[in-house]
Every structure is written in C-alpha cells, then in structure tokens.
Amino acid sequence: MAQQTIMVIDDDQEILTLINLILRDAGYLVKIGKDVTDLFEVEKNPPDLLLIDNWLDGKMGRDICYQLKTSPKTQHLKVLLISATHNLPQTAEAAKADGYVAKPFDVDVLLNAVKNALSAA
C-alpha cells in the first residue's frame, strides 16, 4: 500500500514541527506549509488529507476549507480544521470539514482524527 500524504498548513512553526514529527512517526508522508499560498499546490498534487489551522495570517481557515469543499475541483479533498476556537465543532461543520482537532491536542486524538478522516468513504 502506498504511503498516504498529509499536507499541514499552520502559521505556527512549533505546531508544524510537532505535527510533522507525530505524523511521520505514524508512517505518513507529510508536506508542511506556513500560509495559504502553500495551498496552490493542492489542485495539481492533492494530498490524501489536508490539515488547516483556523487562523492563517489573518485569514480564516474555515473559509478556505469551505471554498475547497464547495469547489468541484477540490470538493473530494479530506480536510480537518485545527484550532483552539471554543466552538470548533460548529465551525468545522459550517466549513464542511471532514473533522477537526482542538488545540492543544493529545497525540492519540490527532492520530485518531487523521485515521478516521482517511478511512471515511
């Protein structure tokens, strides 16, 4: 089975480093990005899963997620929102995300959310 690819977009370098280590240790191929410009690659080379921080350089990750999930070209992408927002379940649902991970996160919670998103039909 081919290694699954996960793209993580977060403007916090420490979070990127941590998630990168966790996912690589779990056997995933990880691509990381610090801002929305890194999403331009998604259409050309879609990952199996996209993790997007809800706050990116003053832009809303939920808005980006919504745009991806409502575009015919990218609606098939699996997307998880990552955030410390207190109403994250409602935010993720409104954005049409496939799930969410609340910050601060437990390693097992992150890995379970990733596994569930990747295994969803």
Classified by CATH, the class is: Alpha Beta
Structural class: alpha/beta
CATH topology: Rossmann fold
Tally of individual domains:
1
What about the largest sheet?
5 strands, parallel
- Overall 3D form: globular
The largest sheet has its strands arranged as 2-1-3-6-7
Helicity, in percent? 25-40%
End-to-end gap:
17 Å
Instruction: Count every helix, treating DSSP H or I runs of 4 or more residues as helices.
Output: 5
Spans of at least 5 consecutive residues with low confidence: none
The string of secondary-structure elements, in order, is: EHEHEEEHEHEH
Describe the structure.
This protein is an alpha/beta fold and 121 residues long. The protein has a single domain (5-119), classed as Rossmann fold, CATH 3.40.50. Helix content is 39%, strand content 23%. The chain is built from 5 helices and 7 strands; from the N terminus they run E-H-E-H-E-E-E-H-E-H-E-H. It has helices at 13-25, 41-44, 61-70, 88-94, 107-119, and strands at residues 5-9, 29-33, 49-53, 55-56, 59-60, 79-83, 99-102. The strands form 2 sheets. It has a 5-stranded parallel β-sheet, with helices on both faces. Helix 1 (13-25) links the parallel strand 1 and strand 2 (29-33). The longest helix is centred in the first third of the chain and has 13 residues, at 13-25. The two termini are 17 Å apart. 32% of the residues are buried.
Write the layout of secondary structure elements.
Layout: E1 5-9, H1 13-25, E2 29-33, H2 41-44, E3 49-53, E4 55-56, E5 59-60, H3 61-70, E6 79-83, H4 88-94, E7 99-102, H5 107-119
Parallel strand pairs: 1-2, 1-3, 3-6, 6-7
Antiparallel strand pairs: 4-5
